[in-house]
Amino acid sequence: MSFPKGFFWGGAVAANQVEGAWNVDGKGPSVADVATYKPNTDVKDYKSHVAMDDAHIAAAMADPDDTYYPKRRGIDFYHHYKEDIALFAEMGFRCYRMSIAWSRIFPNGDEEQPNEAGLKFYDDMFDECLKYGIEPVITLSHFEMPLHLVQEYGGWRNRKLIDFFVKFAVTCFERYKDKVKYWMTFNEINNQADIGDGFMLYANSGVVVKPEENVEELMYQASHYELVASAEAIKAGHKINPEFQIGCMIAMCPIYPATCRPEDILQAEKAMQKRYYYADVHVKGEYPVNILKYWERKDLKLDVTEEDLSVLKQGCVDYIGFSYYMSFCTKAEPDSPEYDYRGEKDRIKNQYVKASEWGWQIDPIGLRYSLNWFTDRYKVPLFIVENGFGAYDTLEADGSIHDPYRVEYLQHHISEMKKAVEEDGVDLMGYTPWGCIDLVSAGTGEMDKRYGFIYVDKHNDGTGDLSRRKKDSFEWYKEVISTNGENIN
Asked: Which residues of the chain have pLDDT under 50?
């Protein structure tokens, strides 16, 4: 048997993409509730989909409709969770990874007392999971911080958010200490390292950049405050329940050199340093020297105190959770003699792999590479908490949904995952494919970009009756789980 007994097979979602009920039972608006769906924009034109500024936020908050704000309605998991969890149980889920909507617990983020109705919703939902023997795996901040913290405090550019987040985390740890054992602090915290992508700095950190501001300095400052907040939360969590397993969550897109030319090799190495230093801080409790030297060379003025550095040492994670969808490729360019990776600007197409309709490069071997890379560098348990294939599915006249492309994608990735465990000795806790039930896309806001084993009758224009149907992949994944990964065909 390649996977250990008790291996966590399951699925993953985020509260802001499934719950809906954006203004129900005391919930406050979050950064996700002002994100738009733009029907006339090319799905590959990512920057146009995710553009965000103060004017956009003000216009969104003045609009009570949800037509162009699909995360306000999600798939109405808030009112369908019992039906959905029963379907997860039918598939055999051993865990369910989701997030707690911060603004459902603290509507503005800075209140003295939490919202009891919000706390009760998660009590009831966790009870429903545990009834079926499904272990909740919870992310505390998954692109859904309270909007008030953005408008009043400037998001994570402000040190005050450390205390607000820790209070939220401690509230959740204390309330659910007997129901939830597995936690993660910030979802895909490192995606904001690609500073050309304004969406991630906004979604991760609630930072809306002004034209005169140094976006790179803002990004590193917000990231630092989040890393300190994560460490403080982990320290507090381990005191509340020493049995807690609290991890980080890294977006893993390994960055390959375009050729074996030494300049390309070094460019790829510097790119990896810049995107994945977050894991060094989370696991080792300190910044790598290369990042400190980069800050110095770029003359970045950051608020990093000795007390902060001490906290980072005391609040290291128990495991690394990570997402894996694709790999990147880069090459050295003459206009960057110091090999400063600039995100999308320095990425090129990898001619050796195919891509999805959204331009995401499909690279199953990259998952095995990533598992080895993390293991060699950090030597802590790993948890694949996102992996999946977004596609346009067709609902047939008889109500069936045939998705062999999704099965094929997952087969190839599980096969490489199995090799990493069996042949390479990777310590892997579990595997939770993303969007186990159809949900609203994080970036483009589409509903028709579907990941799930379960089809939800909801569409880009908001039409649909929200009924649930099993896709062909439902029965396939059920067999994978029942055989503990032995039968993936």
From this structure: none
